[in-house]
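Hey, can you fold this one?
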Amino acid sequence: MTDPTATHAVDQAIESRRSLRAFLPTPVPRETVERILDVAARAPSGTNMQPWRVHVLGGATRAALSAEIEAAHLSGEPGPEQEYPYYPERFFEPYLGRRRKVGWDLYNLLGITRDQTEKMRHQHARNFAFFDAPVGMIFTIDRRLAIGSWLDYGMFLQNIMIAARARGLDTCPQAAFAGYHAIIRRHLALDAGDMVICGMSLGHADPDAIENSLVTERVPAGAFATFWDL
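Sure. Predicted structure:
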């Protein structure tokens, strides 16, 4: 029998999840982070391989990594160089339009115009400070694994974000970190077989930050689903 209260709670956690870009310095206890990860690890994976590896950063470790990557980003050296293609070589519709809309919606909130490329670059650099969240996470995968494990990994990442929302916390998944895998590799003493997938900010959202008022649009199921004999 379906429990309507539980259904509402799950739906609320999913629907209230947003990629937030400003956090309060309020600490998040280690036990809370560990519990979130334990819950997230219930994600399915092919033959129960559980391909995820998480590096949870706080305090001086997070600050040192952030400082070096931010400096590299703002100087242009070394430039971002991801080990895997996150985006297509050339965008096309409807994906190009969606990408442009979310970018300009954010910049409009921040008062950044199309010709202010330096301000855009500094806003992008906020990624590398984990948007001031007290907890930063870097996710890696064994590079010998195949695309199926990457699909499994996506479900694990989503579980983290939903479990965080259930506890009144917010997140921002950040592919931007993958471009600085060489710096990350040094700071976290990663093995050569570890590939950086992304980062994620975790903490309490800053309710006064204008950028956190951004709510992205989603097309309804009827626009992407085909129902057969249902």
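Helices lie at 4-15, 30-40, 59-75, 95-110, 117-125, 147-166, 181-188, 221-224. Let me know if you want another pass with a different chain boundary.
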